[in-house]
Amino acid sequence: MTTKRLAVLLALLLAGLSTVFVLPKQLLFQPVGVELRLPESLGEWWGHDLQVSQREIDGLGSETEFARKAYQNGRGDEIQVSIVLGGHDMNTSIHRPERCLPAQGWTITDKHSRTIAVPGYGSIPATRLSNLQTALGADQKPVQHRNLYYYWFVGHTNVTGSHFERTIIDLKDRLFKGYNQRWAYITVSAVITKERTKFGRDEHETDALIESFVGQVVPKIHKESVERS
Known about the structure:
two-stranded parallel sheet; 29% helix; alpha+beta; 229 residues; 9-stranded antiparallel β-sheet
């Protein structure tokens, strides 16, 4: 965390101390802002459920809920989508991919913010990660795999692509409003298939594929309470 961000957190904490005694003893949860059920199909895409690993379940809070699917189209493309809905203990229910991806053997080679257009809806902010992993191929020679990984967070009303901003919103809600938003963490990812398959897509084409998919899935999983921009 940068010095500037730490200063913002400390300032909010100090400002909230004056109100801490008027907060309710029991913080309330706002209604969930996402549908915890991914659609069976979206346009040309057809999905099937993916199992959540026991390791992931054990590593998160007991109240954490999941929805996960892999979608394919007739061209042979695949996109994986995951919703992780946090429980009451947000410290154990929401993990940034910057923490879990390296643990899975991926190296994050690029990270930046992205605004994705959602037709008829507006747009959403997201974080885009470019990742690299080296594994042994069938001939036991090293093979590099690359993927693109988009994520964002959705509360009852708020949506943000920043883990830091989500933390600030959460802190302000607790201190000044006396409630929590039960945050969901949504990821959409795809492998860069250029030079791996006959009609593989390069990085630019994979970005376009993911962002087009996000534009279709957001209206299906964001509830009406979530603010639009």
